[in-house]
Amino acid sequence: MNLKMSVVEREICQGIAGHEDSKSHCLTFSRVIKNISFAEGSRAHHFLDIGAEGNPERIAADYITQLRDTTLPNILYSKNIFRYELDWIGTSGISAETHQPYLNQFVKDLYRGVVKQIERGITKLDNTEQGVLTKELQTHLWKLKNSLLWSVPRETELDNIKKYITGDSGSSMVVYGASGSGKTYLVSQAVHGVKNWIGCDRPLIMVRILGISPLSSSVKNLLTTLCKQISYNFDLSYDDIPQEIIPLKTYFKSLLNYASVRNPIIIFLDSFETLFIDEHNNGASWIPNPLPKYCKIIISFLQEENNGARAKEEQKFITALGAAGENILHISNFSDNFPEILFQKWNEIARKKLSNYQWRVVMNAAASCPTPLFCKIAFAEVLKWRSYTPKENTFICSTVPTSIAQLFTSLETKYNCTLVEHSLAYISAAKYGLSESELEDILSLDDIVLNSIYAHQIPANRRLPTILWLKIRRDLGEFLSEFLADGVCVLNWAHKPFKDAALNRYFKYPKVVNHYYNMLSDFFLGTWSLGKKKPFPYTQVQRQRLFIKEQSSEADRRVSPQPLFYTNLDGVISRFNLRKFSELPHHLIKAKRFEDLFTQVLFNYEWLHGKLSAFPLEFLLSDFQDTLDALEDADSKRQVLLVADALKLGGNILSKIPDNLASQLIGRLLPEIWNFPDIKELIRQCDKISPLHNALVPIRHCLLSPGGPMKFSLEGHQFAIFGYSLTSDCRYVISVSNKFLTWDLGSSEVCRDVDPHIEGLMLGLALSKDNRYAAAYTSINQVVVLDVMLGQCMIIEGPLDRSDEIVGLFIVENTIVVYNSHYWRRFSLKGKSIEEEYFAVALPQILEMIFLDVEHYIAVFWSGDEEFIDRNPF
User: Fold this and answer.
1) How many CA atoms lie within 13 A of 76 on its CB side?
2) Whole-number Å distance between alpha carbons of 353 and 337
3) How far apart are CA 334 and CA 370, in angstroms?
4) N or C: which end of the chain has fewer CB within 10 A?
5) Full-model pTM
6) Where are the beta strands (DSSP E) in 573-662?
7) Which residues pair with 492 in a beta bridge?
8) Strand partners, 86
């Protein structure tokens, strides 16, 4: 059959005939050209298959006629079939001058047909709150269903999860392991079996695979959908769900109290590392600890392979969330016989039969590396084998990195090697991955790729044929997954070892690496969009075969433009280009294109204002910090630092009102225009463009300049602050008033807000050495203990005698010491009294106590004599 039709015809038949909705979803456009001339100079060969003798291929013509007149009309609705009959005119046959009415009608029909299809699709979407929630749930359940199909139950691990769900534990459970260890598989198996475990008719089982949809990619969106799902199942109104993140966390905790013996609530959160930042800003303060009765939360977490600072912070977080190890399940390698069971099931699903020799090869390889990821890669290689495959080609590597390298090699051999290399390199180089349209545009800008594809011809449209990348994408299968980044579905590696392997393989040489980042920079800058033609060199083969004298030419690559924002028909900004804001600085820094970085990003008013409007301030400041880390020139570093510090000083205002950007920059940086040309240009842009956003533009230096001792103005408390402390890593400040606020010193923003709901104010603050716990006391003889990592509060009532006033407190070795001028008492973090001591000296006032450990302390007293002068201080 393959010999009787072209590749294009076969793809049309399979694509349309195999689609259940093809009747209404597909459009066909065909033309019949009459009286074609085959005279000398005729362009007939552009429209017909011509045989060796110069005559039309009748067999090919018959097949295409049958496809056009019989096959497609039998599949599609007649209203979706457009047919045009034309006459051949002159030697050119078809041209814009002689067939303008046909071209106009074709464009009109195509436009109307596509718009109609889009409108029909939109009307079918359920955009109600309930419809959006249903679609979100279907997205996650479909992902788990696919995982369940290819998984084999891991009885030991499942038993641990079952014991947790059916047990009395009041904390969350954490399942963690390395990339590709089978966490998602295990979650899918647990979701499948949980209803039978608990023996309940109406459990509320909620599942989220974090990061695969916009509504699961941030804490706020995640909590909103969870609250809606709980509200729907318990007949509560959506109107009560708060819009702000702080009250939303509290409301979610209150909803979990609806769990009952008849309606337990079980929540599965896969890939929780997506929301983790660090121990202070980890996004988990909304998880209650302890959990309400009949409520369980199971979290899967990616284990960092190195022992860096992030790995240590993650380990502390996992330990805290999993009740100090009680509910922590580490996913290890397979047992000895498990790979055999796994491959038997996969072979059955794929209807694959292996010879005895092939089976021994697979089992020997699996024994050397019994991990789920290795088995998955090995099975992808097994699917390529045939019963007649030579033994020398029946080979599986023994480790994950070498298996990935084998996969990459097979792709490079099967397809265009240059195309495979550059495609995988661009995906690996991108900060958050690339969408398929972005990747196709970038490859269409890469003349190294295009010259390898069009080595013997000059295409009419110098772009990458879409089908070439789709074939590579198909062979990569689940190893290349879709994620949501900046509201766009992007492709990125499903497992970290794949990205590591791609970086090691394709990023060896600085010149090649610079080429990758230059192409990415040009795309996100929009350098060659909007019809601007990009030059390209002819290959030696092209010049020889096609008798081309010129060395180069130029062509429009038809890539998408990259504005900072998109507007509606009224010229009002409808949305920002989040992809450009996220990716462009990263690639310019990697390509060392600092001039473009300065003019287009860091010293560009429209960029700064747009990114402040679309992202939190910390995202913008991270661009400046990345630049400072890469720069070597002292003067360039100085002016970058000045702008960054000016943004930090005005951070409290800019975070709320980005339109005040110009007033902050001019008011703080105006004296620097005589010293730094890039700052001068930025101030000029502020004067010229900012009145569109805010008419109040300073005419002179009126605010505190950056570069001095003041770095931030931290504003957020409603009442006076009575205590604050800097964390040991100097990254955060924790302060107390009527609530605890944690400030990120990288951006001056509040990253945590915990309200203990007490009467009055907290008057002092103590912080443990590991920054895990904070404690404050009140004027009504209370001590409030905060678990900084989990955001949970516990109140100790009456730590001192009723008539005694608390002077201060100290945290030492996970205990709290509360003292006044006469004695001190030590409590556990749960409020249990451990010991006390009365002072032997009778001095009127104690100023401070510092505990070196639980047995040794320093107490500073004051005599109360304001007139005393120590004549002998030493």
Assistant:
1) 22
2) 19
3) 5
4) C
5) 0.78
6) 573-576
7) 481
8) 33
Amino acid of residue 172: S
Block residue for tokens 């047992």:
335
Which pairs count as long-range contacts for 510-516, CB under 8 Å and 24+ apart, including other chains? 513/590, 514/591, 514/592, 515/448, 516/422, 516/425, 516/426, 516/429
pLDDT tens digits for range 335-384: 667 788 888 888 888 888 888 999 999 898 888 888 888 888 888 888 88
Tokens describing residue 390:
């030579």
**CB atoms closer than 10 angstroms to residue 209:** 22
Half-sphere exposure of 640 (CA within 13 A, CB side): 25
Q: How many residues does the chain have?
A: 874
For residue 606 the two structure tokens come to: 């429209």
> CA-CA distance, 865 to 316, in Å (whole number)?
47
For the stretch 284-297, pLDDT in tens is 678 887 888 899 99
CA distances to 517, 643, 707 from 637, in Å = 22, 10, 13
In three-state secondary structure terms, 229 is: helix
Structure tokens of 361? 């090869």
Query: Are the CB atoms for 551 and 537 separated by under 8 Å?
Result: yes
Amino acid at position 371, single letter: T
- In order of 573, 796, 851, the CA distances from 775 in angstroms are 46, 10, 15
Q: Which two tokens stand for residue 755?
A: 């309200």
Distance between CA atoms of 742 and 729, rounded to whole angstroms? 14
Name the residue with tokens 């699709």.
121
What is the rounded distance in angstroms from the CA atom of residue 762 to the CA atom of residue 784? 8
Question: Residue 539 gets which letter from DSSP?
Answer: P
- Asked if residue 822 lies in contact with residue 838, where contact means CB atoms within 8 angstroms, the answer is yes
Are 445 and 559 in contact, with CB atoms under 8 Å apart? yes
Beta strands 204-209 and 265-270 are: parallel
The helix or strand, by DSSP H or E, that contains position 63, with its residue range, turns out to be: helix 58-66
For residue 27 the two structure tokens come to 């459009």
What span, in angstroms and rounded, lies between the C-alpha atoms of 350 and 340?
Answer: 15
Mode of pairing for the β-strands spanning 488-493 and 732-736: unpaired
Q: Both ends of the chain: CA-CA distance in Å?
A: 103
